[in-house]
Fold this protein.
Amino acid sequence: MDKLLESLKEYLHMETEIPFEEFSDYYRQLISELNQTFSDLDKDARVKALYICTIVQSNADARAKASKVNAKTFKKMSAKCAFWADAIKFNLTKDGMSAEEIEQATEEINTSI
């Protein structure tokens, strides 16, 4: 998750929007990482994954509205990220974190970027 978070930080500091292909590639890396390692992630990595999923979901939603050509693809990306975000929140709650603690932990990542 650290590598994906570092890439996301770079993207968030850019002045221009990354091209569809690059966004799609980043999304595929994220989903692949979650599929392969989710059950092995510690609490810190899950919080990072939640933050990344939330940002990618938000960006996919915005791009779906702005792009008629790729709107369907962006909507699917958003839905998949929403699914993962819900799964991560459920898992973190099961591990003893409250909704407020989860929100605070993701906010700390946001302020560090």
In short: The two ends are 15 Å apart (CA to CA). The helical segments are 2-12, 20-37, 43-66, 71-94, 99-112.
